[in-house]
Design goal:
Belongs to the PspA/Vipp/IM30 family. The protein has 257 residues and is mainly α. The chain is built from six helices and no strands.
Amino acid sequence: MGILSKIFSLLRGTATEAGQAIVDRNATTILDQEIRDAQTASGQSKQALTKLMADQKIATDKLNEKNAKRNEYEGYVAKLIAQGNQDLARETAGKVATLEGEIAADQSALTNLKNTVDKLHATIRTADTRIESLQQQINQVKSTESVLKAQASIASSYSGQNTKLRTALDSLDRIKQRQLEQSAQIDAANALEHESGESDLSAKLAAAGMLPGATSADAVMARVQATLSPIPLAAVTQQKDPAAALNAPATGVRSDS
């Protein structure tokens, strides 16, 4: 029994939550309908008030007529008494008394009717004020809801734009980095080419003995020859022709014969 009770409570709670969710999703629509219902009720109350005010006017007119009749008959009573016609004066006084009774009753009814009209008029005025205030609040809620939807749409669009912008910026950064790397490679290649050209030129200038501290092959040969003793011409000839050197007499050797 306890389980069934809990299940029933669960079903009721679920139904309540579902109903509340429906109400929340359609709150403005429900409020609009309630406003229309209140305006309809106010219109009906105004119609009833109009009828009561008409009845009040009719009752007031009748009361005024009876007061006029009473005053008229009172004048007759005074004249009849002055003439000494007591019987007719008494009869006329009876009519005045009847009118005064009716006037008192009509006055009481008219007072009650006037109070009802005043209360209904105040109620309608209060209801109209509340309806107007509620209508303004509903319009404000609708405007706020529209603004929130617009802001949500803008935020969503802005978020998407930010994602696209971030992607574009990342791509741009990668392109810039690649360009920097390519530029560095080109600069390095140019530097290597320049250094290679300068090395070739420096080597040629050094070989020609143009650079400070550079020594050419001819300069080395001249320096070495300058350090050697002068070589006799015969020695040079012998070095050039070894056979002739063997047949020729030795220079500077004295003969014993």
